[in-house]
Write a structure and sequence with these properties.
Blueprint: H1 2-33, H2 58-62, H3 65-77, H4 81-96, E1 104-106, E2 112-114, H5 115-122, H6 129-148, E3 152-157, H7 161-164, H8 171-174, H9 182-192, E4 197-199, H10 200-206, H11 225-243, E5 249-258, H12 267-271, E6 283-291, E7 300-305, H13 309-314, H14 317-321, E8 324-329, E9 333-335, E10 341-344, H15 350-355, E11 359-364, H16 376-384, H17 391-401, H18 403-416, H19 420-438, H20 446-458, H21 461-474, H22 478-495
Parallel strand pairs: 3-4, 3-11, 7-8, 7-11
Antiparallel strand pairs: 1-2, 5-6, 8-9, 9-10
Helix pairs in contact: 6-9, 6-16, 17-19, 18-19, 20-22, 21-22
């Protein structure tokens, strides 16, 4: 018996040892041979080169950079990596209701959100009232000019999941008091000045809980196809009233209900890279009819906007409802009415593109409100009102429009315990001064040069000490003394030219 037991124990240990060896060896073999096909991960990834001893040098070995890079490449190219990532993500979601996807957060009732929508809704991304007051004035001036030319400017606020499902926000945000947001102030300023605004955000909130089908998919960030059709119908009717013309009529012929999800209704779910799909309510895919009957007008349209537009495009709404509709995605890549690429916005003659349209629209959801129109509104204003632009405002616009840079400002504002508006203005000021040092001939306006001289004074400790002493002697504020010295520097330079 004892001999038999020993034999069984030995076989078990050998089996266990073999199993462990296989577990350790298989990822390496998979990485080299790729004998098992793995489902690729969703989302944007940077391709990582394979480990290569041929790049070894004594210098990189001694400073540790070779080992670090080699280890990183090994981790990124290990066999079964995709499956292991999905397994880890599945455990996090199933047991802890956590999403291991950048910017994705799980809310109440398993509602998935992109966190930027929530942060914009709560006011964390608020960039100040002055920005929106200025933009509203400019947009009203553009609107009036276009109207004289027989054209219409329209600002369309798309709905955002953060505000629509504020009752389903995750725990970390439910106890945060909402403050004023960019949407709150911009919509107020535009309405006060009579700018043409179609607020689909408010429209969605007004019909929340009253529609036959969901307006947002549980696992998506955009409006559902059903919601997008309601939005399109509302938009066409609004444009009819605005233009005083009869546009094509949109109607839903039928709603196909089922488990099959049409892209992008599951776009957040895909980004989570799970093993098993998230259980979600039945979806509907509306089948449309667009009546182009006699007497109806199909206007020429130019839209600068975000990805919400593509639900309309996928249902051929712009193709059928408009004579032409060029879509400038983030004011960059152009998509034609038929879905074909149309090049880059920067490659176009902006004046010609605008003047050949009947309707010029900006479509934007709450997530991107801080980056409003991605410079498109400023281009419109400059087209009709060319002239001086404050360099600091130019750089501030760029910061707000550039995602990574804006994110850095948000973090630094929080760390410095100052407002986001103040942090952006400081950075814009720095960029302005830095650009002057690199391109001094670019700045010839007195107002610019005075600010540059003031920044030079404030950035020089010894000079600032002198300003303090002079201000005390002259019995004026330090700011006034700096202004006077900047004026003196300017006049002195002008005399010596």
């Amino acid at each position: 018996m004892k001999s038999a037991d020993r034999q069984r124990n030995l076989r078990f240990r050998n089996l266990l040892f073999s199993f462990v060896v296989v577990i350790l060896v298989m990822p390496g073999l998979q990485g080299i041979l790729g004998f098992v096909h793995e489902k690729p991960l969703s989302g944007a990834f940077t391709e990582t080169a394979t480990p290569d001893f041929g790049e070894f040098t004594w210098k990189t070995w001694l400073d540790g950079s070779f080992q670090e890079e080699y280890n990183n490449r090994l981790e990124q190219n290990i066999g079964f990596r995709n499956s292991l990532v999905r397994l880890n993500n599945q455990i996090s979601y199933s047991f802890f209701r956590q999403a291991n996807a950048e910017g994705v957060i799980v809310g109440q009732q398993s509602e998935l959100f992109e966190e930027d929508y929530i942060r914009e809704y709560t006011g964390e991304y608020f960039v100040g009232e002055k920005v929106w007051q200025k933009k509203a004035r400019q947009l009203r001036a553009v609107q009036d000019t276009l109207s004289k030319l027989g054209k219409s400017l329209v600002i369309i606020f798309e709905p955002g999941k953060g505000s629509f499902y504020s009752d389903r926000l995750p725990g970390k945000y439910r106890n945060i008091a909402k403050t004023v947001s960019n949407y709150d102030v911009l919509s107020r300023e535009l309405n006060n000045l009579g700018v043409n605004v179609l607020d689909l955000n408010q429209y969605f909130l007004s019909i929340k809980g009253k529609t036959e089908f969901p307006l947002f998919p549980q696992c998506g960030t955009h409006w559902s196809y059903y919601g997008s059709v309601l939005a399109a119908d509302t938009t066409l009717k609004y444009l009819e009233r605005l233009r005083g013309t009869d546009l094509p009529d949109l109607s839903i012929v039928s709603n196909e209900i089922g488990d099959t999800i049409r892209h992008p209704d599951y776009d957040i779910g895909l980004a989570m890279n799970l093993i098993f799909p998230i259980k979600h309510p039945l979806t509907t895919d509306p089948k449309l009819k667009i009546d182009q009957g006699s007497g109806k007008t199909r206007p020429q349209v130019l839209i600068a906007g975000d990805s919400f537009y593509f639900n309309w495009l996928n249902n051929r709404i712009p193709t059928e409802a408009f004579g032409s509709c060029d879509f400038w995605y983030y004011n960059n890549n152009i998509t034609k009415s038929d879905g074909s690429p149309g090049g880059k916005a920067t490659e176009k003659d902006f004046r010609s593109e605008v003047l050949q349209r009947d309707i010029i629209a900006v479509m934007i959801t709450e997530r991107f409100m801080h980056a409003f129109a991605w410079g498109f509104d400023e281009q419109l204003y400059d087209l009709f009102f060319p002239g001086y632009r404050d360099p600091e405002e130019v750089f501030a616009d760029q910061i707000r429009s550039y995602g990574d840079e804006f994110g850095r400002m948000v973090k630094e504002a929080s760390a410095m315990n100052i407002s986001l508006e103040e942090r952006i203005n400081k950075e814009a000021n720095y960029l302005f001064y830095d650009d002057y040092k690199a391109n001094p001939d670019k700045y010839t306006e007195k107002r610019d040069l005075l600010r540059i001289y003031e920044m030079g004074i404030r950035g020089t400790p010894d000079w600032m000490q002198e300003m303090v002493k002079k201000a005390a002697i002259n019995k004026i504020s330090i700011d006034e003394q700096i202004r006077r010295d900047a004026e003196w520097i300017y006049e002195d330079k002008m005399k010596n030219k």
